[in-house]
Amino acid sequence: MPPILSIKDLRKAYDGGFEALKGVSLDINEGEIIALLGPNGAGKTTLISTICGITRPTSGSVTVAGHDILTDYRQARSLIGLVPQDIALEPFERVINTVRFSRGLFGKGRKDTVVEDILRRLSLWDKRDNQIRELSGGMKRRVLIAKALAHEPRVLFLDEPTAGVDVELRKDMWDIVDQLRADGVTTILTTHYIEEAEAIADRVGVISGGEILLVEDKDSLMARMGKKQLDVQLTAQLDEVPESLAAYDVSLGDDGWTLVYSYDTRAERTGITKLLSDVSAAGLQLRDVVTRQSSLEDIFVSLVQKDREGTS
Amino acid sequence: MNWSAISSIYVFELARFFRTIAQSLVSPVLSTSLYFVVFGAAIGSRIEEVDGVSYGAFIVPGLIMLTVMTQSISNASFGIYFPKFIGTIYELLSAPINFLEIVMGYVGAAATKALFIGIIILITSFFFVEIQIAHPVAMVLFLVLTCVSFALFGFIIGIWAGSFEQLQLVPLLIVTPLVFLGGSFYSISMLPPVWQTISMFNPVVYLISGFRWAFFGLSDVPVATSLFAIAGFTALCLGAVWWIFKTGWRIRQ
Ligand SMILES: Nc1ncnc2c1ncn2[C@@H]1O[C@H](COP(=O)(O)OP(=O)(O)O)[C@@H](O)[C@H]1O
Ligand SMILES: [Mg+2]
Question: For residues A152 and A196, which has the higher predicted lDDT (pLDDT)?
Answer without folding.
Answer: A152
